[in-house]
């Protein structure tokens, strides 16, 4: 029994678990501070729910750690189809009050009980399926030219369009951007020619520039609204361009966020202290709690933990030396980086608000469980690599014993 425990311990990458554990602790503390100030009557319920989600996520991550790459390869299409099926549910089972407040129909709600956000779990399914698609294509086309690159783009686009279509129906722009980022990151790693990438990047830059020119021009916002752009999306971009223009109304959240972060200074104003009211600071704006209470030093520690986590994931990916695992890891790393950059960027005024949570810290069960499942996938890479290394060592040891016996027999 003790040997099995030692073997299991040796196969778990605690260097990856450590930053995740610290981020979870910071998240629980930050959530406690935010809720104790804004919703003290619901403190036990909200923090208790978060702890339950974390426990569930850790359990699932531990289970996923034992999945082999062959099992993931076989399950990828099923996970993708299951994810699409779940994403249809919010279109029929939703809360009108929640839709009115967020502008998106992305949560499954039954009998006034909000259950989960399917798009969060779809991120993991999409990453695994995209990794399988790219590896399969590369195996069939070892020699690549522009024609093959365009074919790969077409295949991955066809895989992505159903997801983006459902997110469009849900009016969830923020999550759509996450999938676009994953799509771009995995295509970039796949070795797409710069002759395709450069025009695509330039086109994207031009389109963003044209959009902003239309947005700030007289009558531009009315034009975009008539084209189908939602009012809340227009208000978020307005808040990004000038958060203090309508600080008492449409840009209140952005303005309060900047003031709170600025008031934290170098070391913060102290634990469980605040002078400002910031809407949904327990979830999308959780970074303001960290920056206000713990200051620049606390915020820097959080960013450093994310960088350490990314470094550990990259190290495990390189050691695994498995193409399928490499693409899974790339997709998950891009997803985490985009979440962190967008959430902190929105809180600090660098980027518009999109409602994207801060991984392992923001309140939210779906995001928490999904991210921990992703960590389980990375742990499975380390676990499987260690198993392979142990098998190679045993084989070498066995071969060495056989050779020694043969030499001994010859000497006799």
What does this structure look like?
The protein is built from 15 helices and two strands. By secondary structure, it is mainly alpha-helical. It has one domain. The chain has a two-stranded antiparallel sheet with strand order 1-2.
Tags for this model:
two-stranded antiparallel ribbon, mainly alpha, 412 residues
Return the domain count: 1
Instruction: State the separation between the terminal residues, measured CA to CA.
Output: 40 Å
Count of DSSP strands: 2
Characterize the biggest β-sheet. 2 strands, antiparallel
Main structural class: mainly alpha
Uncertain spans, ≥5 residues at pLDDT below 50? 1-6
Strand order of the largest sheet: 1-2
Count of runs of 4 or more consecutive helical residues: 15
Give a brief rundown of this model.
This protein is mostly helical.
Helix and strand layout, with pairings?
Elements: H1 2-11, H2 14-38, H3 43-64, H4 69-88, H5 96-102, E1 108-110, E2 113-116, H6 118-140, H7 146-170, H8 173-189, H9 194-216, H10 220-227, H11 231-241, H12 252-264, H13 286-320, H14 323-347, H15 365-411
Antiparallel strand pairs: 1-2
Helix pairs in contact: 2-3, 2-13, 3-15, 4-6, 6-7, 6-8, 6-14, 6-15, 7-8, 8-14, 9-10, 12-13, 13-14, 13-15, 14-15
């Amino acid at each position: 029994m003790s040997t099995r425990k030692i073997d299991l311990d040796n196969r778990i990458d605690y260097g990856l678990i450590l930053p995740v554990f610290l981020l979870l602790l910071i998240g629980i503390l930050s959530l406690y501070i935010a809720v104790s100030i804004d919703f003290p009557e619901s403190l036990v319920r909200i923090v208790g729910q978060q702890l339950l989600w974390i426990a569930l996520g850790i359990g699932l991550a531990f289970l996923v750690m034992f999945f082999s790459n062959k099992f993931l390869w076989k399950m990828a299409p099923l996970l993708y189809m299951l994810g699409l099926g779940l994403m249809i549910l919010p279109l029929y089972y939703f809360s009108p009050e929640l839709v009115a407040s967020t502008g998106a129909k992305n949560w499954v709600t039954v009998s006034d009980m909000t259950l989960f956000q399917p798009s969060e779990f779809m991120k993991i399914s999409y990453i695994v399926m995209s990794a399988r698609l790219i590896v399969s294509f590369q195996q069939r086309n070892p020699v690549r030219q522009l024609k093959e690159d365009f074919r790969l783009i077409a295949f991955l686009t066809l895989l992505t369009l159903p997801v983006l279509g459902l997110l469009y129906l849900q009016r969830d722009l923020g999550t759509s951007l996450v999938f676009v980022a994953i799509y771009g990151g995995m295509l970039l790693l796949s070795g797409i020619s710069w002759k395709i990438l450069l025009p695509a990047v330039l086109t994207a830059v031009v389109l963003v520039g044209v959009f902003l020119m239309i947005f700030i021009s007289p009558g531009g916002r009315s034009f975009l609204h008539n084209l189908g752009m939602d009012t809340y999306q227009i208000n978020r971009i307005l808040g990004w361009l000038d958060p203090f223009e309508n600080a008492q109304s449409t840009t209140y959240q952005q303005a309060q966020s900047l003031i709170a972060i600025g008031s934290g200074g170098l070391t913060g104003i102290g634990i469980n202290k605040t002078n400002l009211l910031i809407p949904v600071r327990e979830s999308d704006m959780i970074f303001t709690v960290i920056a206000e209470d713990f200051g620049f030093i606390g915020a820097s520690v959080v960013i450093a933990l994310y960088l350490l986590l990314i470094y550990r994931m990259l190290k495990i990916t390189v050691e695994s030396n498995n193409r399928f695992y490499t693409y899974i890891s790339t997709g998950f790393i891009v997803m985490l980086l985009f979440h962190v950059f967008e959430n902190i960027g929105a809180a600090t005024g660098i980027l518009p608000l999109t409602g994207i949570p801060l991984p392992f810290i923001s309140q939210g069960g779906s995001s928490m469980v999904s991210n921990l499942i992703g960590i389980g996938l990375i742990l499975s890479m380390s676990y499987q690599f260690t198993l392979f290394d142990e098998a190679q060592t045993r084989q070498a040891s066995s071969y060495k014993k056989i050779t020694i016996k043969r030499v001994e027999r010859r000497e006799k």
